[in-house]
C-alpha cells in the first residue's frame, strides 16, 4: 500500500473513532456556570426593582401635591421640629440648661441633616394598596404639643398624630382605614433615624432591638454592607449613643414582629425599621396603632414604663 492510501486510511480511521466516541462515550454538555446563574438572577431582580420603581412613580404622580409644612413641638425638656415631608421629625433640641450650646441653642443630638425620623410606611410585599415612598401628607392639626397629618387616596386613608406628653416622652398614633370596596391587607412599618456623623471610639452609636427575652445591638460598621434583623415579638427599638437615645415602644396590643437595623441611603444615619404583623381590614374598617416615642438622655430602663395603650380595630 502506497503512502497516499495509508494516509487516507488513517484519516478515515480517525474520523470513525471520533464519531463513535461522540455517539457513545462523550460526556454531557456542562451545566450553565454558576456565574451565569448569578447574572440571570441579578437581571431578574433588576427587572423587578425597575417595575417596583415604575409603580412608585405612578403612585407618586397620582398623589396630590401638598406644600411642605413645618412646625415645632415643645415641652419643658424637649423641642421637636416636625414636618409633613417624608417623615415626621426633622430635628431635635434639648432644652435643659445642661445641653445649651455657646450659640444659645439646645443640643440637636439626632443631627439628621436632611434625613427624617418617624417615617410611616408599608411593606409593599404584604400590602394590597400602593403607598408612595414620599406621600403627600396633608397637615390636619397642630398645637404646642401635637402635630397631625393625613394621606388619602381611593384605596386607603392613613393618619399620623404625634403628641409630646411630658419630658422627653410622647406618643405616635397611626390610623389606617380601608376606603376600597374590597377586603384589604397591609403591613405597617415605622423607620427611625440617628446621625452617625459624630461617632468615634469614645462615642459609639448603636441600633438596638429588644425582644421579650433579650436584645441585640448593631453598630454602623455591623450594618455597612447589609442590615441586621431581629425577628420575634419586639418590645422596643432604640438608636443610641453614649449619652442620648431615640426609641420607639409599641403598645402591648401592637404586634411588632421584626426589627431591622441599617443605614440611610446616603450613609449618614443609622436606622431602625419596625414591621408590625399584617392586618386585614374589611371594606370601611379601620385599625389604630399606638407607639410610645422617646427623644432624650440615655435612660433605656424607662422604656418599659413608657409603653402606651392602646391599638384598636373599628368600623368607620
TrEMBL record:
Gene Ontology CC entries for this record: plasma membrane
Gene Ontology biological process terms from the UniProt entry: protein transport
Domain of life: Bacteria
Disordered: annotated span: 35-65
Keywords: Cell membrane, Chaperone, Membrane, Protein transport, Transport
Annotated Basic and acidic residues bias: 39-59
Chief location bin: membrane
Residue intervals of the Membrane insertase YidC N-terminal domain: 74-305
Places the protein is found: Cell membrane
Pfam families: YidC_periplas
Family in the record: Belongs to the OXA1/ALB3/YidC family. Type 1 subfamily.
Name of the protein in question: Membrane protein insertase YidC
Record organism: Nannocystis pusilla
